């Protein structure tokens, strides 16, 4: 059992982040015992789940749905959400790869000559 500060530290977030997740309904707010709220390993597990799901690209609304799906054991919907997220990530990767290629081209053009305006700055200036 730990305090909200210990929970936040275990999850790699700030105390206000934990409180925000509680307000959003992603985490339970335990009753006060001896004037202090105490959190257990299940709370640490939930906080880490939220953080890992965010790192995978899920929004807090999607994470709330995943939590609800876990309670109802709806694996088919969880798989559907994962497939949707994979598609969104693939699209983002393609977008980033295109941006990287364009920036590499501009960097090569910039390195080719010291004459005239910089192609990088000119491209971003419109």
Automatic annotation (TrEMBL):
One of its GO terms (biological process) is response to mercury ion. Coiled coil: none annotated. Residues 1-69 form the HTH merR-type domain. One of its GO terms (molecular function) is DNA binding. Keywords: Activator, DNA-binding, Mercuric resistance, Mercury, Metal-binding, Repressor, Transcription, Transcription regulation. It comes from the Bacteria. The keyword Nucleus does not apply. Mediates the mercuric-dependent induction of mercury resistance operon. In the absence of mercury MerR represses transcription by binding tightly to the mer operator region; when mercury is present the dimeric complex binds a single ion and becomes a potent transcriptional activator, while remaining bound to the mer site. This is Mercuric resistance operon regulatory protein. It comes from Hephaestia caeni.
């Amino acid at each position: 059992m730990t305090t909200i500060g210990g929970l936040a530290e275990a999850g790699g977030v700030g105390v206000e982040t934990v409180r925000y997740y509680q307000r959003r309904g992603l985490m339970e707010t335990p009753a006060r015992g001896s004037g202090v709220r105490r959190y257990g390993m299940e709370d640490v597990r939930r906080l880490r789940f939220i953080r890992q799901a965010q790192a995978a690209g899920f929004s807090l609304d999607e994470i709330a749905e995943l939590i609800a799906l876990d309670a109802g054991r709806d694996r088919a919907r969880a798989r559907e959400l994962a497939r949707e997220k994979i598609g969104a990530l693939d699209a983002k990767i393609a977008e980033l790869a295109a941006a990287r290629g364009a920036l590499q081209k501009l960097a090569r053009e910039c390195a080719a000559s010291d004459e005239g305006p910089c192609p990088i700055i000119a491209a971003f200036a419109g």
